[in-house]
Amino acid sequence: MITVFSGGTGTPKLLQGMVEIIDPADVTVIVNTLENEYFSGVYVAADLDTVMYTLAGMINQETWYGIEGDTFVTHDTLKRMGCPEILRIGDEDRGIKIQKTILMNKHPLSEAVEIQKERLGIKSKILPMSDQDSNLTIQTTEGKMDFHQFLVEKQGRPHVLDINYEQVDSAPGVIEAIKNSEMVLVGPSNPITSIGPIISTKGVMKALKNAYVVAISPIIGDRPVSGPAAKFMAALGYEVSCLGVARIYQDFLDKFVIDNIDAHYKDIIEKLITEVVVTQTKMNNQQDKVKLARMIFG
Ligand code: GDP
Hints:
14 strands; 7-stranded parallel β-sheet; Rossmann fold; 3-stranded antiparallel β-sheet; alpha/beta; binds guanosine-5'-diphosphate
């Protein structure tokens, strides 16, 4: 069994490569839930849905959000009727989100996801990091805001001063998955707002210290491939580089994979982490994804 920690962009790309070379049934994905929130009456678990849609082969690979070829009739109608519709949710995607919202009247999130992934024919296990909601507060020079206000309304522009979220209980199966895995793979996702919350979930750090843990740097050179990781790392006092990521993960990591262009960091990171591997970590196409997965799983 391999357990993968995932956010919503970089790690799903790697999952597409992984499932070509290892049996999807041997993969458990533990997914960040920090940004989950209700929008226009539906529960939006953005990273969970991205992982589900990726493993079901229906993800929109341009945005890494929503379903490929989806239509937006409901979104346009709601806008015309004066609803704020902060997120542009497609019709098919909204259908799945409505089902999740209905299921959550009777089930915790982890059970709702289990029911949905079975329906979508997904063989891997998908676990939310927690069944509890947790609130993220981003302190900026323009005041306090939540993740979607920062990223969608303000388009990630404000200068970030600090980031806070509460520690939550891990969902059923999370600790067991880590304990029963031959490898825990921390995918290339935002180390502060995607991987950080998973690691801080109760019991996870302790379980990680007894596991064989490999991570892939989401930072290549001095910037992330996408998303706000640079602003968040800088706000918490980390250098925006694979070295900064290594410092975040150093307490539990056995092996760290960094990009070719960061080869000069190898020696210094080896003082923090036992094994450092240098390779191409930018995944531009399916071939790159499979190649990176092969490098990790042999
Ligand atoms: P967010 O978009 O920052 O909220 O966070 P996600 O957890 O969804 O992941 C985005 C992270 O994935 C960013 O930090 C990117 O640098 C990383 N990422 C995206 N594509 C790639 C890639 O091809 N290679 C690597 N190494 N990282 C990637």
